[in-house]
Design brief:
13 strands; elongated; about 280 residues; about 30% strand; five-stranded mixed sheet; alpha+beta
C-alpha cells in the first residue's frame, strides 16, 4: 500500500479549504444577486408618482414586515427633481398596510417606514415557513388620481421574496408578494440539524463504548456528554431569525438530540456506578 506523503496531505487540506470557501462565495453571490432583484409595476408616464419601497425587516413571529418607502413626484407633479410635490399629495395604500400618507404642497418629502401585515404560513414551520402580502399604492394629487410606478426591493438578508401577481392600472401599482427564508438561512438551519444529530450520535457511541467495555465512572467522558447537552441549547438559540420553541427545527433535530444525549448520560452514569460498585476494593 502506497504511503501518503506529508506534502500530499498539505495539498489536499489546502484544496479542501479552497473548495469549501469557493462554495461559500458562490452561495453568498447567489443569495446577494437574488436580493438585488427589484420588481416594478405601474405607469411609466413622464408625469407620475414613483413609490420606491425596500423590505427592511420581516418579523415572522409578529406576522409583520416593515417597508422603507420613498415617494418621488415627477413631471408636473413634482418640483426640485422630485424632492417636493407641486400640490397636496395623498398616498393611498392597500388594506394590508396601516394607513395612508398626506404630503403638503411644496414641502420636502422624506422616506418613512410602513408596516404591512402578513398572511398565511406559520412561524413553527421554520426554516420552511412562508408568508404572503398584497402591497398596493395609489396616489391623489390635488384631489385627482395620478399615475403611479411602484418599485419593490429586498434589504432583509434573512428573507427573500417572490412576486406571485402584478396588479397594474393607470393610477395604481400593486404586487402580490410571497416571503420565504433566504438561501443562507436554509443552509445554516440544515447545518444546525445535521450537527445536532451528529453530536447526539457521537454521544451515543461514546456511552455505548463505556457501557460495553465496563469502563466504570469515567468523569471526563461524562463531562463531555453533559457539556454537549447544555451546549446544544445555546447552539439552537443561534438559529437566524430566532424561531420560537416548537418549530420544525426542534421536532426534527433539537428535541430528539437532547433526549438521546440525556438518556445516554443517565444510562452511562448508572451503569458506571454499578460497575464501580461490583469491583473489588483496591486494598
Amino acid at each position: 500500500m502506497r504511503k501518503i506523503t506529508p506534502v500530499f496531505k498539505v495539498v489536499a487540506t489546502v484544496l479542501a479549504v479552497v473548495i469549501a470557501a469557493g462554495l461559500g462565495l458562490w452561495l453568498h453571490a447567489a443569495d446577494r444577486t437574488a436580493g438585488d432583484t427589484g420588481h416594478w409595476v405601474g405607469s411609466h408616464a413622464p408625469d407620475r408618482i414613483e413609490v420606491n419601497a425596500s423590505v427592511l425587516k420581516v418579523d415572522a413571529a409578529a406576522r409583520e414586515a416593515v417597508l422603507r418607502v420613498l415617494v418621488v413626484p415627477l413631471g408636473r407633479f413634482g418640483e426640485d427633481d422630485g424632492v417636493a410635490s407641486t400640490g397636496e399629495l395623498r398616498l393611498l395604500t392597500s388594506s394590508s398596510l396601516r394607513d395612508d400618507r398626506v404630503f403638503p404642497a411644496h414641502h420636502r418629502i422624506s422616506s418613512f417606514d410602513l408596516p404591512i401585515a402578513l398572511t398565511g404560513g406559520a412561524v413553527t414551520d421554520y426554516p420552511f415557513d412562508g408568508y404572503e402580502a398584497r402591497i398596493e399604492f395609489a396616489a391623489v394629487h390635488n384631489g385627482e388620481p395620478a399615475p403611479v410606478l411602484f418599485t419593490l426591493e429586498k434589504v432583509d438578508s434573512l428573507f427573500s421574496f417572490s412576486v406571485k401577481d402584478y396588479r397594474a392600472a393607470e393610477d395604481q401599482g400593486g404586487l402580490d408578494v410571497r416571503f420565504s427564508r433566504s438561501t443562507s438561512v436554509l443552509v445554516f438551519a440544515l447545518f444546525m440539524m445535521i450537527t445536532m444529530w451528529g453530536l447526539a450520535i457521537a454521544v451515543f457511541f461514546g456511552a455505548r463504548h463505556l457501557i460495553a467495555r465496563r469502563k466504570g465512572l469515567v468523569w471526563p467522558s461524562f463531562g463531555f456528554m453533559a457539556a454537549t447537552l447544555f451546549a446544544l441549547a445555546g447552539f439552537r438559540n443561534l438559529a437566524p431569525g430566532s424561531p420560537p420553541i416548537g418549530s420544525l427545527l426542534d421536532y426534527t433535530a433539537f428535541l430528539w438530540a437532547e433526549v438521546v444525549i440525556a438518556l445516554c448520560v443517565v444510562v452511562a452514569v448508572v451503569t458506571g456506578a454499578i460497575t464501580e460498585h461490583g469491583k473489588p476494593d483496591a486494598g
